[in-house]
Predict the structure of Cellulose synthase-like protein D2.
Amino acid sequence: SNSSRLSRMSFSGEDGRAAQARPAPGAGGDRPMVTFARRTHSGRYVSYSRDDLDSELANSDYHVHIPVTPDNQPMDPAISARVEEQYVSNSLFTGGFNSVTRAHLMDKVIDSEASHPQMAGSKGSSCAVNGCDGKVMSDERGQDILPCECDFKICAECFGDAVKNAGALCPGCKEPYKATEMEDLVGGGADGGARPTLSLPPPPGGAPASRMERRLSIVRSQKAMTRSQTGDWDHNRWLFETKGTYGYGNAIWPKENDADNGNGGSGGGLGGTDGQPAEFTSKPWRPLTRKLKIPAGILSPYRLLVLIRLAVLGLFLTWRIKHKNEDAMWLWGMSVVCELWFGFSWILDQLPKLCPVNRATDLAVLKDKFETPTPSNPNGRSDLPGLDIYVSTADPEKEPPLTTANTILSILAADYPVEKLSCYVSDDGGALLTFEAMAEAASFANMWVPFCRKHGIEPRNPESYFSLKRDPYKNKVRSDFVKDRRRIKREYDEFKVRINGLPDSIRRRSDAYHAREEIKAMKRQREAALDDAVETVKIAKATWMADGTHWPGTWIQPSAEHTRGDHAGIIQVMLKPPSDDPLYGGDGEEGRPLDFTDIDIRLPMLVYVSREKRPGYDHNKKAGAMNALVRSSAVMSNGPFILNLDCDHYVYNSQAFREGMCFMMDRGGDRIAYVQFPQRFEGIDPSDRYANHNTVFFDVNMRALDGLMGPVYVGTGCLFRRVALYGFDPPRSTEHGGCCSCCFPKKRKIKSTVSSGTSEETRALRMADFDDEEMNMSTFPKRFGNSNFLINSIPIAEFQGRPLADHPGVKNGRPPGALTVPRDLLDASTVAEAISVISCWYEDKTEWGQRVGWIYGSVTEDVVTGYRMHNRGWKSVYCVTKRDAFRGTAPINLTDRLHQVLRWATGSVEIFFSRNNALLASRRMKCLQRIAYLNVGIYPFTSIFLIVYCFLPALSLFSGQFIVKELDVTFLTYLLVITLTLCMLAVLEIKWSGINLEEWWRNEQFWLIGGTSAHLAAVLQGLLKVIAGIEISFTLTSKSGADDENDEYADLYIVKWTSLMIPPIVIMMVNLIAIAVGFSRTIYSEIPQWSKLLGGVFFSFWVLAHLYPFAKGLMGRRGRTPTIVFVWSGLLAITISLLWVAINPPSQNSQIGGSFQFP
C-alpha cells in the first residue's frame, strides 16, 4: 500500500482534534508525519492507503511496524524517494495552528490539460489492477514505464506486490516479468542509467542517511580542510589533500605525471614546460568583477565645486544673518530659517555623492570557473550556488494575474542552471484565481521556456516580447524561427484568454458544485424528515477547485476560516525539482508541437505558497510574507542566495542572475549582503511628467552610495545572501571612526567575541565562521523558531554561499566542485515542515522581524532591512547592466504617484522616530553612509520649510517688502554664484551618471510637488502617530476618467481628488494672485519699488515653474480644457487685483507707474 511505500507517514483522525504533524519514531525528531488523502466533494478527507483506512475505522492513531522478512522487503530508498516525490508534486499541502498537516492528492490542478511531467496534476495513466487508482510509473519525460511486454499498466506498489506475492507474474498476461528489480525499470540520468549517488560517508550504524544529514555531511567533510587555526583558509593543506593547483577556472587539476602522458614530457598537451598544467601557466587568475572609476577630469571638478558651493553657502548665510531687514523682520526671519535648513539638507544630500563608482562583470570568467568540464567534473555540471526567487502578490484585483504569470514565465526562462533555480510565489490573499493562474503559467512554460532557449529570445516575458515595436526577426538565423514564433504567439493568445476567463470559470464551477451540494442536502433532509415540513437548506457557498474539492484559501464569498485574514497555510509544488542532468526534447513530442531537438526542456522548481492567517495575529503585511518565504524555501530548497521581485517586475535580461552572482562569487564577495539592481519602468509617458523613472535617485544617488558601503535596499530587484538576512555578522567586520573614514579609512578589526555589556536589541547574531565552540546553536530555537530542519539548514546555506577558494587572496572560500552534487529529491515530510514554518504562530517568541529576516515596524521595511545589514558591517553592491536587468510598471496618474510618495515618506518619518535612526548607528557603518541614511529619515521634514518658502514670494508681493532690505550687488552676486554652482554640479552629475538634463529637471520639479503635498502629509501623519498614536489615511475619490481605452497613457489624464492636492493648489493660486496684486500696486504707486517687485515676481515664477507638471495634471487630457476656463481665470485675477487697489488705494497718484527706474 501507499503507507508502506511512503516513508515516515501516518494517519491522523478525521475528527480534526489531532495535533499537528508530529515526528515519527526514528526520524531524527524533525521529520513530521504526513497523511496523503483524497478530499471528497463534501470536503471530508478519505485516506489514500489501506492501512490508513483501517486506522480510520478504529478512530485512533497508531503505528504498525512490520519486521523485515523475506516476504516483506523494503523498497530501495532511491526508488521510494523518487516515487514519493511524484506524489508530493501532485499534492496540495495544507495545515497550520492546531490543525493537521494534510497532503491532498489532486487529479488535476486546472481545467486544461497539464502535459509537462514536472507539473502538478500532469496527465498520466492509471493502474489497471482492480481496486487500485494509483498512477503508472513514469520517467522524466512523463512517459509510462511498463515492465511487461504486453504493456499492462501497473503502478510501483502493485508491481512490488506482484513480484513478492504473485510469483513475479504480470497481472495482465500472466507471464513472468523479465525484469523484477525496480532499478532495471527506472533510470536516473538522462541516458537512462542509474542515478548517481552522493559520495558522502555513510552514517554510523549503517542506517540510511536522512536528507539533512547528507547536506550537513558536505559541510563537515570540508570543515577540517577549510578552516585553519587562524580562522583563514588553509591553502597548503587543501593543495596537499586534494592535489589541487591554483589557476584560471576550476582549481582542481590532474596529477603532474598525468599531464605529460603521451607527450614524453615535451611540454605538449596539458603539461607545461615546468611540469605544471598549461592552463596554470597560460591563463592567469582573473576576477569576476572590476570597479570602473569615474574619470578624474569629471570627478575632481565635481568635488571642487562641492567645496566652493559649500563655502559660498556659508558666507551667504552669514551675510544674511548679519544684514537684517528691519522693515520686515518677520519676512527676514522666516526666510533665514528656511535657508539654513535648505543648506543643511543640501549638505546631507551632497556629501554621500563624493565617491561615485561604476562596476562591470565578466560573464565569460564566471562560466569558465563554474561550468567548465574538469577531470573531477567531466560532465561540466554547474558549480554555481542555488538561487531562490520570491515573487510576492496580495490581491488579484489590484495585481492582475496575467502580469504575475508573465513575471513567473520570465523567471522560469532565465539563463541560470535549471537545477539550481527555484521560484516561490507568495499569494498573501490566498486566492484560487492566483493559484490557477500560476498553474496555467506552469503549463504554458512547457513550450515558452524551450522556445526562448532555442532562439535566444529577449526579453523572456511573453507579453513584452510580443509587444516589441522593433523587428522580431532581426539577427534570427534558424529557418524554423518564423514557424515557431507564429505557433508560440497563438499559444500565448490562447493562454491569455484562459487567464482572463479564470474568474468566470471559477465562479461558474463553484455555482455548479454549490447547486449540487444544496440538492444533496435537501435530499438528505427530506429523507430524514419524511413527511414533515422541510426548511430551506442554507450551505456556505464555497469556492471549488478544478478537481471538485473545496479551496482551502480565501473564498469568493468569504466564510469562516476562508477569508483574506483567516485561512490555512497552503503549499503546492507546481513544478517539481528538475533532474540533475539535461533532458533534451525531440521533434514534435506530445505536448510540444515544436522541434526542441538538443534543447533542454527542464523547468525550474515552482512553488505556490500562501501563509496561514488567523484573527488576532499581526501578519506584518509584505515583510511577514517575505519572512514566511525565507523559512519555507530554507526547508525545501535552501538556496544560499535569494532574489525578490514584485509581481509586476519581470526579468528583462535573462543573464541578470549571473551578473549578480559575479559579485557574490568574486574575491571578497562573502562580505556582500545584497546586490541591488536599478528599477526600470515601462508604460511611462514620453515626457515623464511626474519623474516616474526616478533616474536621479537610481543613477546618481545609488551609484554614489556604491562607492561607500553600498546602495540602500529599495524593495525589489535585490539579490540577498541568505545568512545576511538571518542576522549574522559578515566574516570580517571592521569599525570606522572619524568623519573622513571614507576617504582616509581608519579601520579596526572587531573581535569575534561579543562584550557582555552590548544591548541584546542592537547586538547582531554572530556566526563566527561556524566554529562549534562559538556558534552556540543551542540558542538558535529562540531566534529562528523550533524547526530543527530550518536551524540545520543555516550552516549549509553559509557554506554553499562562499566564493571559490581559487586564489590565495580569497578568504572564507569553499573548494571547487562542492556544489556539483545532485539535488535531493523532494519528500513529503519536507513540505510538511514547510507548512509548519509558515503557520501564523511560528514567529511567536522568536526574533523574526526584529533582527532576523525582513524587519517589521515600518511601511518601508526594505530600507530598514538594508540599514540593519549595513549597521552590522555588511556591504552592498549596485549592479547596473548594459541591458536592463528587470523592468516593471509605475503609476503615471498624479494621485497614485502622490500616494506612492506619501507611503515612502511616511516610512522615512517612522525610521527617524525609531531605533533605526542613523544617529544611533554602530561604528561599523562609515560616516558618509550614516549621513546618507540620516538623510533618508530627515528629507520629509524639509516640506515644512519648503511650503513656507513657497509662500514667501506671495507674502513679499502682498506686503510690498522683500526678504532683504534692498537688492544690492552683494545679494545678487551670492545668488548668482549659488545658482551657477548648482547648474555646474548638475551638468557634472549628468556627465558621470549618464542621465540627461530633462530627467534632472523633472526630478527638481517633482521634488517641490512632493515636498509641498505628500511629504508634509507624511510628517503630519508620523507626528500624530508618535505623539498621540493616531493614524490618518487619505482616501481617493475619482472625479473623472479617460474614456479612450486604446490610449496607452490614458491613466495619465485621470483626475482623482485627494486632500494631498490642497497645498500645491493653494500655493499656485496665492502666487498668481500675488503677482497680479504686486503689478497693480507698483503701477499705481507714486514711488514704485520695481526692484522689490522683480524680486518677488522672480521667486514666484520659480515656484510656479516647478509646479507646472502639477497644474498640467489637474487640467486632465490635453486639449479638453475649455477655453472659457482660461478666460474666467484671467478675469478673476484682474478682478482681485483691482479689488486690492480699491481697498488700499495709492495716495495722491496721478501718473500710472510713476517714474520708472530700473534697479
About this structure: Residues 122-181 form one domain. The chain has a mean pLDDT of 78. Residues 481-529 form the longest helix (49 residues).
